[in-house]
Structures are given as C-alpha cells and as structure tokens.
Design goal:
The structure is a single chain. The chain contains 12 helices and 5 strands. The strands form 2 sheets. A 3-stranded antiparallel β-sheet has the order 1-5-4, with no helix packed on it. Strands 2-3 form a two-stranded antiparallel sheet. α4 crosses α5, α8 packs antiparallel against α12 and α11 packs across α12. The protein is α+β, with helices and mostly antiparallel strands and about 325 residues long.
Length: about 325
Amino acid sequence: MQPRPWPRIPEATVRAARAAAGTGEYPLAMRVRDELGELFSDAEFTEAFGTRGKPGWSPGRLALVTVLQMAENLTDRGAAHRVRFGMDWKYALGMELDDPGFDASILSEFRTRLVAHGLEERALDLLLKVLQDKGLVAAGGKQRTDSTHVVAAVRDLNRLELAGESVRAALEALAAAAPEWLAGAIDVPAWGKRYAARVDSWRLPTSEAKRRDLALAYGTDGYTLLGAVYSPDAPGWLRELPAVEVLRVVLLQNYTRTVARNGREVITRREADTDGLPPGRWRLSSPYDTDARWGGKRDTFWNGYKVHVSETCERPSTQPADATVPPCHDPT
C-alpha cells in the first residue's frame, strides 16, 4: 500500500450531489468532507498493510466508510451499497458517479487488519483530534449518568421454572445434536413426559411439599444428564454445547450436592439463608438469554438489562450563551 492523498471531488459528482441536496441541509457525509476534509490519511494505517502486491482501496477512505457505516447503522453490505449508489457518499470519498465501489467483504478484512495491528482506536483518535482542533468537542466539564431498565425478550421464570426449563433446553439441544447418543444415555420416554412441553406452559403445584419434590426431581434429572454428558464414553464435543453449559451453571447456582455418611449422594435446593445464593449480577435468569438478569431500582423490578446514559451539562462552545443547559448535581 502506497499512501496517497485523497482525490479531489470530481466536478460531475459535486454538481449532482449538490443539486440533489437542493437548498436544504447537506447530508452528513457531504458535511464531513466539506468541513473536515481529508479526515483519515492513508499514512496513519500503513503498518497494517504490505508494500507489495496489487494496490487496494485507500485505508483512509475505508476508515471514513466505517465511520459513516456506524453513523447510519448499516451492515457491510449496506455500506458497500451506499458507496456504490449514494451520491453523498461518493462526494465524501471523492469518487466518480460511475465508480462501482468495492465488495462488501473488504470492510471486514479492513477491520481485521486494524485489530491485528492494534489500530482499532486510530480512527477514533484522529476524529477526536480534528473535532477538538475545530472546537467542536472539549475535554473536562461535567456529566451526569443515570441508569434505566431494558426488559429482555424472554419469559420471567422463578427458580423452580428456571431449573426445569434449563433441563428441557439441554435435552432439546442434545436431541438435535446427538439423538442416537441421547437415546442410549437416558430413558427418553420417561423424561419425555416431564419435559415434552415448556415448564411455564402448565400450572405448577400449589402444595409446598409437591413443589419441593418437583425442584428435587429437576435437580436430580439435571445432574443425571450432566453425568451422562461428562462420562468418558460420551463425545467430548457435547460438553461444549451452550445449553449444556447453561444447565451446569444453573445447577451450580441453585442446588447443592453432598455425600452423606452412608455414601449416598444428596441433592438439595440452595436456600438464601442457609446455603447462600450468587449475587444477582452473576445469577442466570433464563436458559435462552445468558446476559439477562433480575434487577431492581427503587420500586421497579425487571428481568433484563440495565443501560447507563450519560449527558453533558456544559454549554458547547457553538451554543448561544443564553441557551438552556440541564443542571448537574454537585457531588459535594
């Protein structure tokens, strides 16, 4: 790769893009080229590319494509489509109107090269420097951060339902991955009666004793299934199935397994006041979304995620002096 300056915008592209924009505000891509110029020079990325071979696409312009791609939330294929057909992107990249652009795979290859050479933050650093030089961003100032809840797209399960559904999910995964092995490892007809339907699709027993027995049955079945998967005769790759790993974690978090004096294995359900439970940030709440957690904030409780939002409380240099700025609470 031989570093070269970005090409000037062809006259035909300038006329077509500005005519399409009309008298309104120019699209983001055009404003970036007009106001920031050659934002990313090829020389900044030379160490990620060789010096021999067929010349490829300009890495500096690929960096701009990546930034615009993120700004418009596009896939690689969508970004390549915009480069090929979008006059505003052709304007920003200095391309002729009939330039077909590049294949979408080039973008993933470009990102891979940056990561492999430790340049994944280079584009952000260059962008921040240019914006800072133009007074569009500044260091320091005050910010305030707060959190809000995001509900996961999963069913809410109590601990009893979670244990049963985790066993069922692991059975479903094993039945799809290794049906012949599963048929020889467990009593499929007997287990099929208990795990044929989703655990939350039928009413759980109201009796506390029956619920205790059901919880014990789920735990026993789960450990029996894991014992079969981890046996020396079982294929090793079965242990790598995500549903099997989820079952292992759910059992570890919700059950204890000890050996009595007579040598008999005893499986019991964990209780918060006697055995202790993992912190909420670690405890799984669904076998189908391992990132979801039960959370609470004041009087709101939910199963899902917590997102933090930050906003600046300083008046930007480009904002009028009489503009309203949200106040920040003084931590002192």
